[in-house]
Amino acid sequence: QKAQIGVTGLAVMGRNLARNFARHGHTVALHNRSYGRTKELVEEFGHEGTFLPAETAEQFVASLERPRRVVIMVKAGPATDAVIDEFAPLLEEGDMLIDAGNAHYADTRRREAALKAKGLHFVGAGVSGGEEGALHGPSIMPGGPKESYEALGPLLEDIAAKVDGEACCVHVGPDGAGHFVKMVHNGIEYADMQLIAEAYDLLRQVGGYSPADIAGIFQGWNEGRLGSYLIEITAEVLKQVDAATGKPFVDVVLDRAEQKGTGRWTVQAALDLGVPVSGIAESVFARAISGGVTEREAAVAADLPGPTGGGGHTGDLQADVEQALFASKIVAYAQGFQQIQAASKEYGWDIDPGAMAKIWRAGCIIRAKFLDFIKQAYDKNPALPTLLVDSYFQDAVAGAQDAWRRVVVTAAQQGIPAPGFSSALAYYDSLRAKRLPAALIQGQRDFFGAHTYHRVDKPGSFHTLWAAEGRPEVDA
Ligand code: NDP
Question: How does it associate, per the subunit comment (predicted)?
């Protein structure tokens, strides 16, 4: 008997993926650097399906049917290269190595090119949903050569999350496309979490609501257009009471957000592509500020002054914050999708943005009703320049903007940081502006560096001789 698929790297993610394949009736070959994990999996979960445990890489490879499909689920980075170096010499033309870890897309591009030269298919697959998703159905974003998807896709679709019977898995595009999209997914997740946190903070500090009250408010929002996994779990977290102290859980947790780095990667990639993902960037920076203990302590010790005046919120705070959250979320997603489209163009990936929204509707952290509207927007117009001009989103923001502005004003007046809400609003206002002060920046650049500028009334590059005889002259 041969296995249809093999998994090497059997820590929590690999083990759950292997079990998920087995539960769907596939025979699964198992391998891990140290045999202990392999043995443990078979002992604990062997009854769930058919597993072929292997002690060595050679046994593992020999137990797979051809073309071989080897899922690598190890610590991202050098471990992945070590595993590839171990397996590649054992594989034959047409076999597939599938890296399901959180690799950087540039590493995936490098690995894909190197393995292609050896006649092997390398598939960088983004897998979202954590350990629960891996077991019960993740959202899967496979890249790599299109041909490999023919032999691999049906297996991945089997174990992926489903919405109305449709799998949350699609071939994203060549080489690093899958890992790129997974990275942006994580960046959007950062932005979403930051915006929700700001909504909580404003309700608490301006509205005086308790964490339990806010849990109730979020539960209400979860029934509406904000309905999503993140809103749902936020309500659960806010409801939680610390057993030791009887205080709300949020009040006993140190307020320093940590990060594993995919948000940072997203912003770095966006900077390289020149795409303004200010919502994701602000959320990465907000985590960094929260963890910047020395500066925060110094500022608190110096008692840096806050606002001296400023009244309360004018308007219905709860309703306004919901509108601000929704509008800011639209901006964050619009920016994330713009980044995917920019990379798709840069690398020739031909990514279908609507399909990305579709496969994020279940199995992953940012799953939300909202994604249906994004999918519909791209179905209507695959060439949509920004989600903000889609009729659904345009109307939603038009309806939300007055409330959104009131919330940003209140935050500023009361000295409550709301970098997500306010930067999203600034982005929106920048996009809609007929004229931006960038013209002045062009003038400054031309003044000090002769960088030239373009004119509104005729084509070509122009430079002004700023210093000549104290009077500007124009040199066309
Ligand atoms: P870890 O990231 O903790 O990695 C542990 C596994 O990597 C073990 O199987 C370990 O083998 C193996 N490993 C480490 N170094 C090497 C090496 N040099 N050679 C061979 N094998 C090595 O496991 P997780 O299950 O948490 O995550 C796996 C991947 O999935 C990571 O890339 C992670 O980023 C990604 N991921 C994780 C999610 C999560 O929620 N945890 C969600 C989505 C993706 P040994 O047992 O011998 O030490």
Answer: Homodimer.
